[in-house]
Input
Amino acid sequence: MKLYQTLTIGTAALALSMGAALAQTVGPQGETATPSSEVTVSDDLAASLQGQGHTAALLWHDQSDFVNAVTAGATDEFERLGIEVVTTTSAAFDAAKQRSDIETALARSPDIILSLPLDPVTSAAAFAEAREEGIALVFLSNLPSGFQHPQDYAAIVTDDLFEMGKQAADALAASIGNEGTVGWIFHDAEYYVTNQRDNAFKTTIENDYPDIEIVAEAGISDPARAEEIANAMLLRNPDLSGIYVTWAGPAEGVLAALRANGNSTTKIVTLDLSEPIALDMVNGGNVVAMVADEAYELGRAMAAAGARQLAGEETPPFVVAPAITVTADNVAEGWMQSLNIAAPASVTGN
Output
């Protein structure tokens, strides 16, 4: 999923504490992951929901291609189930606005709310009002403080975090012939989504690729510092075979540093889709792969979890959608599979 500097969470998670022992995605409270393919609404259940006048509200954290794809997946599933989306909002990463959006949505009396809570504390009080009104709550990645499953929410839906990091490691290893030295630029914040993705890369390199050594590590909290951090890493390690970057925003800064240094050999892998990163990749530059989530599938699974709760069917607390490795060879297909839109013309040449 698309990540930004301003998105934080106070959950304890298992994140960094498990280190190399972590070999699968777990939820913010240590929940076992359930594949999104297992969260479905049967035709019989769908028929029971049709004509009931159920409604839903989509209260998002921001507006982006990622959010648009999640919305499309949710809207298509709701349409199949006869559930009308009565409001869609964007909080622009403003927790106060998100609370206002929730209160405004409650006036429409939706039966289901899908949302990514921006602040676990601020959002908890607002979502508690929705919970007390019997609204089915489904959360994208984050969880309001104090909420318990199943009494407070239907499910959390997010990426297969470990698989994203693992696929990034596999792609980088393949690009350097399974040997060499690499740098690891990780998200320097307590957020279980990025922590698990980053650690999965490191764990996979250390466990599966004995001839690859991570010789440089750097944490980043502000994407604007990515070029500076990469320059410092390259100054000490000018012959790096590859660099992992925690997500595509900072990867753009790392790519700029490599170009400024005249370095055309160090490979980059990162997570999430970006037009500048993809353009470098298809032109045979430093970037060899981007690993993305299936955002459309995230939305479908969220809608299904909400509808299941309306029908009295419990969904497991923590649901994950598949990851996909996007390379120059499958960029058009990967973009569509992830975001449900065509890849930019600059990337495909169409």
